[in-house]
Amino acid sequence: MADNTTLIETDIGRDPDDFFALCYLISAGVNISEIMVSPGDHDQIAVVKFLLKECGLSNIPVLADKRDRDKSSATGMHTRLLNKYNYPLRVLPDGFSDEIGCGEDRDVFTMGPLTGIASFLNNGGRISHATIQGGFIGYSQHTTDVVRLSKFEGKMFVPTFNLNGDKVAAIKVISTSSFNRRFVSKNVCHTIVYDSEIHKRICCVAPGNRADELLREGMGIYLSYHDSKKFHDPLAAVCHLHPEIAKWEYGGAICEKGKWGWITSGGDDQIIVDVDRDAFWEQVAFPSG
Fold first, then answer.
1. Is residue 232 within 8 Å of residue 17, measured between CB atoms?
2. What is the DSSP letter of 245?
3. H or E element: which one contains 270?
4. Which of 90, 122, 192, 214 sits 20 to 30 Å CA-CA off 275?
5. What are phi and psi of 171, to 5 degrees?
6. What string of H, E and C letters represents the secondary structure of 161-175?
7. What are 119-158's pLDDT values in tens digits?
8. Torsion 211-280-236-12 (CA) sign
9. Quick one: which H or E segment has residue 247?
10. Residues near 164 by Cβ (< 8 Å), separated by ≥ 6?
11. Are 218 and 23 in contact (CB under 8 A)?
């Protein structure tokens, strides 16, 4: 793990796996500087602050990407956890993402639109490295023998939710030349699925800390009314700390008419094309920095 502090951007609440990715990063001992929430609804803020409080990290600022937001984004799993521990369902942010000054260099981990990260750059912020959950590379663009999904066969461009959440911000972050980026692509993310068998495997390992406990508890709640969960963001979180568990292709992300693809030459960024799944689940069970 790098020595730099890590700036995180998340759209937590819209999909439960943001919560589990944060649990992993906290358990692994990542030095988090701020957490930026997109768009920043008060129920989203409540979920992040609940997790930080439970893990003894209430000093970490939780910032909203947008002002004057108070709609609802949290799912049933989040609400059940907050109710169980008598935590308020709506909490105000500590501030706003566009107020972050430059300060020291930061690593960046994103699992949502890149609104706050773009603001950080616009304010003179310096990024050492960024891991971005999102992007796409076609199977024909590399020679690696990978797990393939029929829905992506023959495709070179697909929409990806996080990059399209704020396309202007995404292009700003991608076009800034002062740092390299790793993209955790849609076609690999969709092959990582947490189900009841994985849950049994994970729960056979005693949790090492409160973040581990909450990951297990949250997934137990989720699996009580779903068969499985695609683990997009936890995969990206593990790859942020342990890129060695994955295979990567160099190049750069490109956008055409709201769909994203990859150029395999002339770029220093990387995109995931496959992952050691056993190594990934080992990290979920035994997080390490």
1. yes
2. G
3. strand 269-275
4. 214
5. -65, -35
6. HHHHHCHHHHHHHHH
7. 999 999 999 999 999 999 999 999 889 999 999 999 999 9
8. negative
9. strand 246-256
10. 170, 258, 260
11. yes
252-263 as b/e, with b when 16 or more CB fall inside 10 Å? bbebeeebbbbe
Query: How far, rounded to the nearest angstrom, does the alpha carbon of residue 16 sit from its chain's CA centroid?
Result: 11
User: What stretch of H or E contains 239?
Assistant: helix 232-241
Q: Write the pLDDT tens digit of every residue in 74-119.
A: 888 999 999 999 999 999 999 999 998 777 799 999 999 999 999 9
Can you tell me the distance from the alpha carbon of 284 to that of 254, in angstroms, rounded to the nearest whole number?
31
Distance between CA 28 and CA 39 in Å, rounded? 26
Total number of residues shown for the chain:
289
Domains located in the chain, CATH noted: 5-285 (3.90.245.10)
Task: Report in angstroms the alpha-carbon separations of 181 from 22, 53, 103, 108, 218.
Answer: 20, 31, 20, 9, 30
Give the pLDDT score at 1. 44
Backbone phi and psi for residue 251, each to the nearest 5 degrees, phi listed first: 150, -135
Q: What distance in Å separates the CA atoms of residue 70 and residue 47, rounded to the nearest whole number?
A: 14
Secondary structure of the chain: what % helix, strand, coil (to 5)? Answer: 40, 20, 40
Q: What is the pTM of this model?
A: 0.96
C-alpha of 111 from chain center: 3
